[in-house]
């Protein structure tokens, strides 16, 4: 019988954080674009296409132009939130498979380390000791991870 060796594409932590930063930048840019585009489309629909009588109240409470403006803002916010997911999917679709596999492995390792070193027990929050970064969301580099570890020891 033959044995099959599995070669893992290992990346360094610096490369891992660079790829995560690139992914986040792509998500934010896509989110801004889709939010702006959906706000413009919602504004066009509510202000130009939808006919309304300015003398009538919507739900008997507010002016129609205020309600339609709020609707356009809500559509823009929804488009911005949707853009994060679309941007993440587009970035994952454009990245190479071996990079994605390595990132997934590093994600597991990173979150195991976070789980191991984060404070356990009750989270006491006060003005003197604010809530710690429990999930290490602010960590963007190896130096940031070391700083996060120092804060968790306190």
Automatic annotation (TrEMBL):
InterPro entries listed in its UniProt record: Pam17
Name of the protein in its database record: Presequence translocated-associated motor subunit PAM17
Residues in coiled coil: none
Membrane topology qualifier: Multi-pass membrane protein
Keywords: Membrane, Mitochondrion, Mitochondrion inner membrane, Protein transport, Transit peptide, Translocation, Transmembrane, Transmembrane helix, Transport
GO cellular component: PAM complex, Tim23 associated import motor
Organism: Rhizoclosmatium globosum
Cellular localisation: Mitochondrion inner membrane
Keyword Transport: yes
């Amino acid at each position: 019988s033959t044995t099959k060796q599995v070669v893992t594409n290992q990346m360094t932590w610096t490369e891992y954080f660079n790829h995560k930063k690139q992914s986040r930048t792509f998500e934010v840019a896509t989110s801004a674009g889709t939010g702006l585009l959906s706000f413009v489309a919602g504004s066009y629909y509510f202000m130009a296409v939808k006919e309304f009588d300015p003398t009538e109240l919507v739900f008997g409470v507010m002016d129609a132009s205020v309600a339609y403006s709020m609707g356009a803002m809500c559509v823009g916010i929804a488009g911005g939130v949707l853009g994060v997911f679309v941007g993440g999917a587009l970035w994952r679709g454009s990245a190479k498979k071996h990079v994605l596999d390595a990132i997934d492995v590093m994600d597991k390792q990173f979150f195991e380390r976070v789980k191991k070193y984060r404070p356990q027990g009750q989270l006491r929050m006060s003005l003197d000791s604010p809530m710690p970064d429990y999930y290490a969301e602010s960590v963007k580099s190896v130096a940031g991870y070391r700083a996060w570890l120092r804060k968790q020891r306190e």
